């Protein structure tokens, strides 16, 4: 069980793949009928037209000047320009998510500090964190949530109960590519591989096939709590994600909410001002919402 207060939900930004633009050459004028009055020796003129990337008058020339006068040639030229202009948009359209295959790979890190972690080795802490996260992605938790209601004298209650867990020592959980960064930021990073069984894949796919809701949240915990503090920050972030979802879907504050939740992807954890800050994306299934009958 965990009880605490957290921050608001941030937006997640993902980089887009850029499109490389080819440089122009004088030969382009001989093969490209869209550039009028161009001469093979007029290299500067070719570069001005092809490299500026302009398609309208504010960039320095008129688009209509690039279109030939003859109807048939004009139609072919317009079709070629439409295909050319639409190509970058199609290239930047994100692909649909791939189905789960036989393995999950993730990266985890740990602070190497004898005051924070006096006993457990860095390798063990990395594997413990991976065990917690992967169990949250595959099995998830059942939760019971009672929002705070000061007018009724009700305190907030939030409890997570694991549905299942990856056994400690499971040979499918492997640590590889251990990188020591203690000279730079006192941390150790490692790549974790986990081989999925058929039942694991069915669980992952079932969660994404059923009627679930997506949400995100941020939670924090003191850095001096070590690895348990990381888990507390993740649990608080899960609570914030559930709370933010309910605030957008329920008009009246509920008396109790019962449901299940899983991690949609590994959390992002960083250190901020002496705390662990965890950002999570979750899938939520609400089983029951109990309302207050009278005030």
In short:
The protein has 295 residues and is of the alpha+beta class.
Describe this structure in words.
There is one protein chain. With 295 residues, the chain is α+β, with helices and mostly antiparallel strands. The chain has 2 domains: 28-92, no CATH class; 103-290, no CATH class. It is built from 7 helices and 9 strands, in the order H-H-H-E-H-E-E-E-H-E-H-E-H-E-E-E. The protein has helices at 28-31, 43-51, 71-92, 122-138, 182-185, 198-209, 227-249, and strands at residues 103-111, 141-146, 157-162, 173-181, 187-195, 213-222, 256-263, 268-272, 275-290. The strands form 2 sheets. Strands 2, 3, 6, 7, 8 and 9 form a 6-stranded antiparallel β-sheet that branches. A 3-stranded antiparallel β-sheet has the order 1-5-4. The radius of gyration is 28 Å and the shape is globular. 23% of the residues are buried. Mean pLDDT is 75; it is low at 1-63 and 85-98.
Number of distinct beta strands: 9
Number of domains: 2
- Please give the count of helices: 7
* % residues in beta strands: 25-35%
Using the CA coordinates, give the radius of gyration.
28 Å
Distance between the termini: 28 Å
Output the structural class.
Answer: alpha+beta
| Helical proportion, percent range | 25-40%
Average pLDDT, all residues: 75
Low-confidence spans: pLDDT under 50, at least 5 residues? Answer: 1-63, 85-98
What is the overall silhouette?
A: globular
Properties at a glance:
2 domains, globular, 3-stranded antiparallel beta sheet, 295 residues
């Amino acid at each position: 069980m965990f009880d605490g207060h957290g921050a608001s939900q941030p937006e997640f930004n993902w980089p887009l793949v850029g499109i490389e633009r080819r440089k122009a050459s004088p030969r382009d004028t001989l093969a490209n009928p869209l550039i009028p009055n161009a001469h093979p020796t007029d290299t500067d003129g070719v570069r001005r037209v092809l490299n500026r990337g302009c398609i309208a008058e504010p960039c320095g020339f008129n688009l209509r000047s690039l279109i030939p006068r003859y109807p048939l040639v004009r139609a072919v030229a317009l079709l070629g320009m439409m295909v050319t202009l639409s190509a970058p948009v199609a290239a930047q359209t994100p692909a649909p998510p791939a189905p789960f295959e036989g393995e999950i790979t993730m990266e985890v890190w740990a602070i190497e500090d004898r005051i924070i972690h006096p006993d457990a080795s860095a390798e063990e802490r990395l594997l413990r964190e991976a065990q917690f996260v992967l169990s949250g992605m595959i099995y998830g938790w059942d939760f019971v949530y009672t929002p705070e209601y000061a007018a009724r004298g009700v305190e907030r209650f939030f409890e997570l109960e694991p549905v299942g867990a990856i056994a400690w020592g499971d040979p499918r959980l492997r640590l590889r590519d251990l990188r020591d960064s203690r000279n730079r930021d006192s941390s150790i990073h490692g790549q974790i591989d986990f081989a999925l069984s058929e039942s694991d894949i069915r669980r992952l796919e079932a969660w994404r096939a059923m009627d679930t809701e997506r949400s995100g949240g941020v939670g924090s915990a003191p850095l001096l709590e070590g690895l348990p503090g990381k888990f507390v920050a993740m649990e608080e972030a899960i609570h914030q994600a559930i709370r933010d979802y309910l605030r957008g879907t329920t008009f009246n504050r509920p008396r109790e909410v019962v449901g299940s939740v899983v991690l949609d992807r590994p959390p992002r954890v960083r250190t901020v001002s002496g705390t662990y800050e965890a950002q999570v994306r979750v899938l939520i299934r609400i089983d029951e919402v109990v309302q207050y009958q009278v005030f």
